[in-house]
Here is the input.
Amino acid sequence: MAGIDYESKIPNNVNLSDDRRLQRALEHWQPSYLKWWQEMGPDGMQEKDIYLRTAISADKDGWAHFDYVKMPDYRWGIFLSERDPERKINFGDHLGQPAWQEVPGEFRNTLRRIIVTQGDTEPASVEQQRQLWKTAPSLYDMRNVCQVNVEEGRHLWAMVYLLHSYFGAEGRDEAEELLARRSGDPDKPRILDAFNQPCDDWLSFYCFTMFADRDGKFQLHSLSESGFDPLSRTCKFMLTEEAHHMFVGDTGLERVLRRSAQLTLLDPSGDARAQGGIDLETVQKFINFWFSYCLDLFGSEISSNAADFFAAGLKGRFMEEKNYTEHTALGQEKRVTLWKDGKFVDESVALRNAMNEVLRDDYIDDCVNAVRRWSKAVKDEGVDFEVTLPSRRFHRHQGIYAGAFFNPAGEPISQAEFEAQAAQWLPTDADKAYLRGIMHGVYEPGKVANWIAPPRRGINGQEFTYEYVKL
Ligand SMILES: [Fe+2]
Ligand SMILES: [Fe+2]
Here is the structure.
């Protein structure tokens, strides 16, 4: 088999060594993947030993193994959470029928599109972040961005496994396309807009892992409810890795905010920038930008696609099985505040058509919890500053609020008012240039850049002073 020793090279729980068809497909795809990784993975970082976690089984206790690895030698595996032979479809029009083990013909195209859209975000984020390690504020952070990147690579493998195993020739073509698009490329961009935005400073990276990976969490959760069982099981296992990505973003922002507060107090005129740090207002602007951009990822507030996905049993709500007692979502409505002819209009929308908004609500609740903790951290440092999330109407490019102008409180304003104040609400070129100016890599174990607090704990029980990357 072209020199590929499947069991050792590709850890898996899908019986790869007995599946000749999948072997042949991967034999073709794996070299293209490695070529893509060399080209688009962390730039100039391929020969370094990094203390990384590798998924080695789908077992709840002990699924991960930590050791020094060079990234191209990372064992990108294929894992699905355990199969429940009794599993039924939990929602929609097929409620109560046995979960599908093969793709139902009538939903083939829709399912393929859902998988490709999710799959496309995985390599996109690696491309967006490929220069970041160079300016890491510590070896701990450098290790974390590489960890996130190899796991996004594994998530691409997971989606490609589904395409190869269940979608025939079309699936193979889509798997090739996933390696051909490039984040931010005008001719061959990634599918979703937030994944074409540059992410070249660490404040953006923490916001990205906080807000974009958290969108991923909610998308994966709703797909883990899917009646198509292999998709459900694939997404369930991806969520175990995704938790660390959100941890990196959430704690990263908290560390930046803490340090900002400390430097604000340290400076005689309360100017964190004068101390070489980031002022709280700038952090708030980055939160405004990434939160609003990531709200767009949930799609239109009123969506017949969302209704179709739910009806078909392809994509459920967040925690559909656990949190809801009624699973058809028929004969129910959701109030949505529309913006029509310069006025707010409250309208009742059939619940199935409002599924994107239902998921967005859950996402916002999750973000609100984090922001509360950050505000408390800033106050604990002795600075009176409330971190906030902007209104869901602010700075939207998709959905019913796109094209209109609202302030962060969600109040309608004119375009001229928006433009006059945008520099106070959203990062400016000068802010970004300032960040680039203070972010230099700190490559000594146990040292940390001036603009961020050290983490409370290291990785996998190690100290912060551990040599996470051997440079
Ligand atoms: Fe991912
Ligand atoms: Fe992620």
The pocket of fe (ii) ion (ligand 1) is lined by residues 122, 152, 155, 216, 242 (CB under 6 Å). The radius of gyration is 23 Å. The chain has one domain: 6-470.
